[in-house]
């Protein structure tokens, strides 16, 4: 392939604006898949993803397109994850492209992730082609959306494509625009190899499959390569392209997108953002932008039944093979026994992993409320990071507690500005900026503690704006806050898994709410159970679960045996998610209760 007949692009969009559907249409139009082969939305492969309608795992595909100028082009479409948790991966896949289709829903207009993605694309100097999608919808208002794109992004929309990924309208036009507008890849074909790893997955037979974009030079089967971040060397056993299934071609040249396998056993040795070079003739400097991803959110994962500990360990190991950003280490909790402390990129990432552990590995888990990483300066002047509130040193030893803050962009109709501001204020946010767009929409910028965002901020935002607000955020750094540790005691014992670090001004209210909530969640036992919230040695709230004599069978008057059995089964079912702590049985909901308190 001539370099000037290659185009590398991605599609950026707010969730649900039609990215996956459009990708499918492009595949279909260029014959990358016959219609019969087309399952709905091939680019979203994981079941979970499909169910939730979100794109988690990036995929790439090569399309051959015979353009209006009579020449055939190689179009490489790189799919990007659509969620803020995966922003680093988004940035790496953008770095593998020269252009982007910006898809905006004709009825919804610009949303927070549209904007966040546009900024990222501009940072990478991508040529942006605006596409207004879903013009078939009765509520479509492409003129309004065009004005928004011009006003908010400052982009010329005279060549904007109007499309319907549903009907296929505008698809050819999009392909022509890709060929005409997006520059072909630069890069010297004779230089030493420099390839950007923008994704990977683990294959049990071939080892790690690295998804790469060749920036300079070429790579072929048999070549000795070096990963520049780790210095580790491997021999390329396979090189090929995505059609969209893997197709070996033996060699990849400058500007191309494809995969290599090199007997790499661990995704750690082949990280997203790393540069692959020729071990015999290495490049002098790696490609810019590589960084190690660090988890932002931690939680404890414990088997309900200790028998499943080894299964949980195996499952985490397997998931880790495919996901270098998942971090875990063994942890013991006085209340919950043996488990793992796991680190995630964000809340969505956490939910995905939890769900996969339960569904794919059939595990029954207790998950503790998530927390962020705190930086503690002790009275000895030592700085430590803690990923578990129960590890906070005693109050007398703590000089300063710092917590991570984010810069959040919230977009909503102007009628909801008051509600959004109120929510941000409640969550210790500080106002940074407000801008009006056309059609009565507003962009608010706030600085907020990350810990406040993980406490059901998104759900609150949605419910207080009737679903009309969208949110995007990025980490801005650590700042000191007046934080304290709130402990919960059940039957006189501190339940370490329920400890939270919280702002001083909110601690009393939260403590009271929490014990009330727990009283409702913990079933009655044969004895009385006191529930207390404490800060240091100070009890700030108390409730009691009264004793009861539990005898479900008494209701059956002895007669109906099947009814009896059903009742017993029901009771057993209810117990499944119970964790025995001391002599108290505590349901899973109790460990997450901290999250759902307003
Ligand atoms: P993504 O989250 O950006 O990948 O969005 P999807 O491609 O999953 O689309 C979200 C929803 O919008 C799906 O229900 C699609 O069927 C629907 N959709 C996508 N494109 C169009 C379109 O052009 N017209 C209409 N009416 N619906 C569309
Ligand atoms: Mg999608």
TrEMBL record:
Gene3D superfamilies listed in its UniProt record: 3.30.70.240, Elongation factor 4, C-terminal domain (3.30.70.2570), Elongation Factor G (Translational Gtpase), domain 3 (3.30.70.870), P-loop containing nucleotide triphosphate hydrolases (3.40.50.300), Translation factors (2.40.30.10)
Recorded GO MF terms: GTP binding; GTPase activity; ribosome binding; translation elongation factor activity
Every Tr-type G domain range: 4-186
Record-level GO BP terms: positive regulation of translation
EC code: 3.6.5.n1
SUPFAM superfamilies xrefs: EF-G C-terminal domain-like, P-loop containing nucleoside triphosphate hydrolases, Translation proteins
PROSITE patterns: G_TR_1 (PS00301), G_TR_2 (PS51722)
Localization (cell): Cell membrane
Membership in a protein family: Belongs to the GTP-binding elongation factor family. LepA subfamily. Belongs to the TRAFAC class translation factor GTPase superfamily. Classic translation factor GTPase family. LepA subfamily.
Purpose of the protein: Required for accurate and efficient protein synthesis under certain stress conditions. May act as a fidelity factor of the translation reaction, by catalyzing a one-codon backward translocation of tRNAs on improperly translocated ribosomes. Back-translocation proceeds from a post-translocation (POST) complex to a pre-translocation (PRE) complex, thus giving elongation factor G a second chance to translocate the tRNAs correctly. Binds to ribosomes in a GTP-dependent manner.
Protein name as annotated: Elongation factor 4
Record lineage: Bacteria, Bacillati, Bacillota, Clostridia, Eubacteriales
